[in-house]
Amino acid sequence: MWPHQMQRRYSGSTKENDLLQHLKKRITMAGPLTVADYMKEVLTNPLSGYYMHRDVFGSAGDFITSPEISQMFGEMLGVWIVNEWLNCYNGQKIQIVELGPGRGTLADDMLRVFSQFPEFASKISLHLVEVSPALSHIQAIKLTGDTDSDEESTSQTAKESNITESEDGGPYRQEKSKYGPLVSWYKSLAEVPEQLSCYIGHEFLDALPIHKFHKTEKGWREVMIDIDPEKEGLRFVLAPSDTPASKAFLQVSPSEERSNLEVCPSAAIIVQEVTKRILQKGGYSLFADYGHSGEKGGTFRAFKKHKLHDPLEDPGTADLTADVDFSYLRKFTSDTVSVFGPITQEKFLTNMGIGYRLQALLQSASQDQWADLISGYKMLTSPEQMGERFKFFSITRKHNNDYAPAGFSDLHVKDDNSEGS
Ligand SMILES: C[S@@+](CC[C@H](N)C(=O)[O-])C[C@H]1O[C@@H](n2cnc3c(N)ncnc32)[C@H](O)[C@@H]1O
């Protein structure tokens, strides 16, 4: 279906939004955009990018994420972080670095867990990597408990106060959390101090720009986005010859059977940076996302109001995403770190004891809470819902023997094994 559609997809919208006009100007001046350039503009353009000026989560938004579904998700990750620290870095100061924290719900649930471990809580600082001024404001309200601005936080265009542009590449915002630890905000991981850290990324890598390639009779061609001359909107086209991205990023094995490939160099840079930091300063990481191990191709898609949406229609009004290729990311780690997973969300959360946590919460739950807890548990763990499609992947310092982090440990995962091998 997709090569045929590729030639003919266009925006059916009648009124052009500002971002569409901007994209068309760019294309008119410099030629078709790569899908990566398009994704970057649509999601994070400072003026009208999808994430930049509003709350996009929950029933009133476009999609829901695991931390928003149930507190148990953040609690399991919080326990995982404390457990690794106790096993590997007990007594040492550590930065908790969360990439793409959304509404701050995961960070809030994790900080609540940390407050139950006073020795650990006294050693941490929280570092949030967030490009969106609106979301960083919502995160600050959640994490500080500053309810004065609650009304503003839930409005479509959240207030963007207390943000200072840092000139030295340091944090653009700092607040003391309601649990005690200091919270600092940065635009990129490169700005976060290089210290012993735990890196967490939940549904972050899937928001990073991908390049798309399609196999033709003449060889592999990059998929580009052009103005549709017959309609008002945009359409997919194929580059007539090699592009800088196809030369730099496309590595096709002779046994490749897919005819569509997606490559995410921005995610590779994050994994490379996390690997380098873990090697130099110590630490561990956990990434969770929609993902696969190199068997999927055309996963680029958009979500609007909880439904699939044409990614080229009304750019900036729908979330854009692509499944994470964990086998590609593994290549950007190193033999000198340990890599675990990807394993399914169901396995990770079950291994971490989400079933026991559910039982404990049910004991003091009201009837409404009981129903919420059960449905949240099912949504997070059931293979038909989020249990199978979401995967967990961890990079840690190299340990002796058969050490594997909690959650991964009953699988006896060796350094270079993925779940299926
Ligand atoms: C799909 S949301 C996930 C939110 C949250 N982790 C959750 O699970 O609810 C992606 C998050 O990453 C942020 N983001 C997207 N691209 C980014 C980038 N290039 N740098 C930093 N943050 C980014 C968005 O603003 C948003 O907070």
From TrEMBL:
It catalyses: L-arginyl-[protein] + 2 S-adenosyl-L-methionine = N(omega),N(omega)'-dimethyl-L-arginyl-[protein] + 2 S-adenosyl-L-homocysteine + 2 H(+). GO terms for molecular function: protein-arginine omega-N symmetric methyltransferase activity. Its main location: mitochondrion. It comes from the Eukaryota. GO terms for cellular component: mitochondrion. Residues 154-164 have a biased composition (Polar residues). GO terms for biological process: methylation; mitochondrial respiratory chain complex I assembly. It is found in: Mitochondrion. SUPFAM superfamilies: S-adenosyl-L-methionine-dependent methyltransferases. It is an enzyme of class 2 (transferase). Keywords: Methyltransferase, Mitochondrion, Transferase, Transit peptide. Its EC number is 2.1.1.320. Residues 143-174 are annotated as: Disordered. PANTHER family: PROTEIN ARGININE METHYLTRANSFERASE NDUFAF7, MITOCHONDRIAL (PTHR12049). Arginine methyltransferase involved in the assembly or stability of mitochondrial NADH:ubiquinone oxidoreductase complex (complex I). Acts by mediating symmetric dimethylation of 'Arg-118' of NDUFS2 after it assembles into the complex I, stabilizing the early intermediate complex. Belongs to the NDUFAF7 family. This is Protein arginine methyltransferase NDUFAF7. It comes from Elysia crispata (lettuce slug). The lineage of its organism: Eukaryota, Metazoa, Spiralia, Lophotrochozoa, Mollusca.
